[in-house]
Amino acid sequence: MLNGNNRGSKTRSVHGGTKRAKAYNSLTAPIVQTATYTFSDTQELIDFMERKTWGDGEDREEYGRYGNPTVTAVERKLAALDGGDDAVLYASGMNAITSLLLTILPAGSHIVITDDCYRRTRQFCLTFLKRFGIETTVVHMGDYEAMESAIIPKKTRIIISESPTNPYLRIADLERIAQIGKKHRVLTLIDSTFATPVNQRPLEWGIDFVLHSATKYLAGHNDVLAGVIVGQGDRMKALRDARGVLGGVVDPHAAYLVDRGIKTLGVRVQQQNETALEVARFLEAHPSIDRVWYPGLKSHPDYTVAASQMDAFGGVVTFEVKGDLKTTSDFIDRMRIPYIAPSLGGVESLIEQPALMSYFEKTTEERLALGIKDNLVRFAVGIEDTDDIINDLEQALSGIRARQEYPQIQNLWEVRFRQ
Questions:
Q1: Active site residues
Q2: Residue 118: HSE in the Cβ half-sphere, 13 Å Cα cutoff
Q3: Confidence of residue 407 (pLDDT cuts 50, 70, 90)
Q4: How many domains does the chain have?
Q5: Are residues 270 and 258 in the same domain?
Q6: Are 151 and 277 found together in one domain?
Q7: This prediction's pTM
């Protein structure tokens, strides 16, 4: 297996954690589509239960909820990519984080989480876990003094943050979070979905657990749901055992799709990194844009820490259009390459207006209280040609600018169009 982090991201994406010899001399990891496994005789069963070594490193399982060779192959690759000892694959990213927390948190314990984490993660901590007497303190992203002050001795069990965050792409100081955790003997977790192991590897900075929604960049084709936790040491065995109880397993075909997607992760993310940086620069200079949020721009509040701990800055660009909710919707409707859709990380570009996609049920005032402006746009670039994406942005922005500067022309056009 090629596990060394000294190898490039493209090589690790293809070969990392992968056995050279596979069943039936297959080049790809076969899909082992079975729910249960057989034993040739009672002695073989006893040997398995006593965990005796199998020949030639053979993967041996008993029942599908406890393991599957296709899933195991993906887990080895993901562990190698993030520099962990082991990885546990789950049915979705949310299943990964909820299973982790249910595994490590006793009743009456306490969590510290940053306010820019994925909203469903915060929802689980603040509502579901509260039923078990588990309290959560939310601290402002980037306020490390508040993070440390929020820790309750002998009660706080984990600090949860995300980097880059959604939608403002804030960057957590991984080394500082790890230091706080170790100082107070508190575990740390970083949701690194937006970064991928190509751009950022939190374990190298001392973080205990890394979370990815494998649905996004890892699988990369918007056709499968999966999530993963990567970490070090004996803690991973506890997660694997708990998955067998909680049942959030990935079916073999979904695991195969993740494995296939990861092989092109290095080349896909490189293209998305390059395009996103060019898009961010283009938008920052455009007169119809109020502000751009991208960690690769010096105008971003976390540019310095991003440049120090990331190899590149990711494929998502968030920006504010000059105008109101309707103007921003008009801009999005004028785009021709990206699809209007949630999610990110696939080969197709996706665009959304968070005020309508994720916070539709809230009023403008309620959204503003959460930091979500009506004119905010999140653009997850795909692998289309950079020039084509920028040209598409230009024509859409020119369209709304013309409407703003010459509303009478727009009104005449609308009248003629309706006729």
A1: 65, 118, 191, 216
A2: 20
A3: low
A4: 2
A5: no
A6: no
A7: 0.90
